[in-house]
């Protein structure tokens, strides 16, 4: 007597809203898979009028001279050691790409910068990024026009470092503030405030002898580890121009 | 075009959240930390559209924000989902002044929840290393973010709520 069958238009697949939501969901999955490259490229265009001026380039050149003096000293000492070791990472300054910082997240959990050079300029994932003073981080992802750099201060960053004075390797771990933590797996290491930290010759991620920072404060030894806070030489919150160096594997 | 913009004003704002998230102006920061922008959009939008819509769009928001950040091991989705669900149950208060302060308080609590859930993920991943080193900067991050989000929420949320209400009413009239 009564037709109790559900009216066909009440099914979810007959509703326009469901399909709109589904297509938004598919689009967002696409955005997630491409690591937000659409957004980053869009941001590239709308932020173009606000990019930093050319005057920063001179500042970089001055700072680079100071940086090279430190590097030279380190390279002399390291040369003997490097001859004995094969298959080390190398970087060539001839391949350096100059890039401007177009987005900067140097506070909170997400410590990253976005540069205005992407895969079209030859930037590769894993390339290292240096600013006036020293190492800033590594390229984590690229879009056509931009590249995202994970900073040394990010909780996800872990790099091998070299303490030149005490000739020991350590691990630099980002802690979510401006001072990443240096972990030395030796309780008796003679670490002092002011000690210079550079990239480790044994690192598989970074070229050797790139200046990173100096020891800012030393924590009390914990179990077999000795930890310290490192003050970075390159300040990501004030740098507008950086260099991207390709890493030869 | 004008009608379309009026009708979908809230979604237009949604598209611009990741742009503001990437913009990160230093002059607006406190201890180098920014307010948690997604919540400032999510609260008024979810208050108007309810928990289910809030849940869906907080998931979408989380997907986009995870895409534009380079930390692949951690996600903002759990915190946003929780906020999306909660914000939808909040009724719009008739008293404007009380309403303003409520936005501040709700966004602060939401930001705290999101911060804690993100921190737990970091802690969980770095548990084997030196997790104790993460505590002080992380607590500082959470509280600076909570403070700034709570400070800006009354100003931004009340205006967005007015705009979204206006947009919804307009779209009803247009549909009619």
Structural class of chain B: mainly alpha
- CATH domain fold name of the largest domain in chain A: Thrombin, subunit H
| Oligomeric organization of the protein chains | heterodimer
Q: How would you sum up the major sheet of chain B?
A: none
- The figure for the number of domains of chain B is 1
Q: CATH homologous superfamily of the largest domain in chain A - what is it?
A: Rod shape-determining protein MreC, domain 1
Instruction: Report Rg of chain A.
Output: 24 Å
Q: What overall geometry of chain B do the principal axes of the alpha carbons give?
A: globular
The largest interface is: A-B, 46 and 41 residues
CATH architecture of the largest domain in chain A: Beta Barrel
Head-to-tail CA distance between termini of chain A: 78 Å
- Terminus-to-terminus distance of chain B: 18 Å
Q: Please estimate the helix content of chain B.
A: over 70%
Spatially, the strands of the biggest sheet of chain A line up as 2-3-6-5-4-13
In words, what does this structure look like?
The complex is a heterodimer of chains A (249) and B (176). With 249 residues, chain A is α+β, with helices and mostly antiparallel strands. Chain A has two domains: 12-49, no CATH class; 55-249, Thrombin, subunit H (Beta Barrel). Chain A has three helices and 14 strands. Chain A has helices at 16-33, 37-47, 55-84, and strands at 90-91, 97-105, 112-115, 128-131, 134-142, 147-151, 158-163, 168-173, 181-184, 196-199, 211-218, 226-232, 241-245, 247-248. In chain A, the strands form three sheets. Chain A has a six-stranded antiparallel β-barrel. Chain A has a six-stranded antiparallel barrel with strand order 7-8-9-12-11-10. In chain A, strands 1-14 form a two-stranded antiparallel sheet. The longest helix of chain A has 30 residues, at 55-84. The mean pLDDT of chain A is 79. Chain B has 176 residues and is mainly α. Chain B has one domain (2-17, 34-175). In chain B, 76% of the residues lie in helices and 0% in strands. Chain B has helices at residues 2-7, 9-23, 37-49, 51-68, 77-87, 96-125, 135-175. In chain B, helix 4 (51-68) runs antiparallel to helix 5. Chain B is globular. Chain B starts with a helix and ends with a helix. The interface between A and B is large, with 46 and 41 residues.
